[in-house]
Amino acid sequence: MDQAPVQSITLAISKAYTAARLGIATTAFHAQLQQERLQTQDYMDAQLTAVPGGTPLYGSDHRLIGAIGVSGRHTQNDQTLADAVATYFQSI
Predict the structure, then answer these.
(1) Domains in the chain, ordered, with CATH?
(2) Which of 8, 18, 52, 54 is deepest in the core (most CB within 10 A)?
(3) Could you tell me which of 69, 60, 67 has the C-alpha nearest to residue 11?
(4) Pfam families attached here (predicted)?
(5) 3-state SS class at 15
(6) Is the entire prediction scored with pTM above 0.70?
(7) What is the block-wise mean pLDDT of the chain (92 residues), using blocks of 10 residues?
(8) Beta strand segments in the chain, E
(9) Could you give the CA distance from residue 67 to residue 25 in angstroms, rounded to a whole number?
């Protein structure tokens, strides 16, 4: 993304990693952490993040095949874009 901060690359990778590892969007992970009163550190995995912008990708057989991570804009915009890409990917 033009003029996005360099650190957004690492954050996008962490968002995708989290969505792929857990099979849920990072927004859902954030909600889960709040509900259970946990922190990402409780999972003992330094790559996990609860920052919005990560969405899992599922194949036509509903199996997890990967994830997308978006970073560089406001976090809710990151999540909206990640969800849109996942929806498009699943439609092709």
Answers:
(1) 7-91 (3.30.450.150)
(2) 54
(3) 69
(4) HbpS-like
(5) helix
(6) yes
(7) 80 98 98 97 97 95 95 92 93 82
(8) 54-58, 64-69
(9) 9
